[in-house]
Write a sequence for this structure.
């Protein structure tokens, strides 16, 4: 899995992953993965079971720390940051099995996600109106 972007040409990618390595013991689940993602682009990871797609997402979203390589978000290092910090920089992940708060309405679930999203300074004031836009 490798798709290196052209270096130094064109606009800064939103996400740049380079030579990413993740090991589980002696097993290399990721061994030099690289790709870039630009604004407006949709990028899919495709591969057989066990090829490292979920591990790649888990490293980028802060669930696992990388053992090597880099993750740049808007040009700034983001590799190894925990999920609760990455969410404020604009990275989060969803899971195949949704886990909404069942005691909340759909709107309240959206409001909660917005409140803990990118901008913590507007946490209490902006969530209802932001949720309406969503
Ligand atoms: N927490 C873990 N501990 C040990 N091995 C793991 C762990 N997570 C994934 N792996 C191994 O890493 C490889 C890649 O797994 P994964 O990223 O789930 O692949 P995919 O999502 O492409 O099916 C597999 O061989 C898997 O068994
Ligand atoms: Mg998977």
């Amino acid at each position: 899995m490798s798709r290196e972007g052209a270096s130094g040409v064109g606009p800064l990618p939103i996400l740049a992953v380079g030579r990413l390595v993740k090991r589980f013991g002696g097993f290399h689940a990721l061994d030099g993965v690289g790709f870039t993602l630009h604004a407006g682009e949709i990028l899919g990871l495709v591969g057989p079971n066990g090829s490292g797609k979920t591990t790649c997402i888990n490293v980028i979203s802060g669930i696992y720390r990388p053992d090597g390589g880099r993750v740049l978000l808007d040009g700034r290092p983001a590799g190894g940051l925990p999920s609760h910090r990455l969410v404020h920089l604009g990275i989060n992940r969803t899971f195949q099995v949704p886990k909404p708060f069942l005691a909340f309405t759909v709107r309240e679930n959206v409001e909660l996600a917005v409140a803990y999203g990118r901008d913590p300074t507007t946490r209490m004031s902006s969530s209802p109106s932001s949720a309406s836009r969503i």
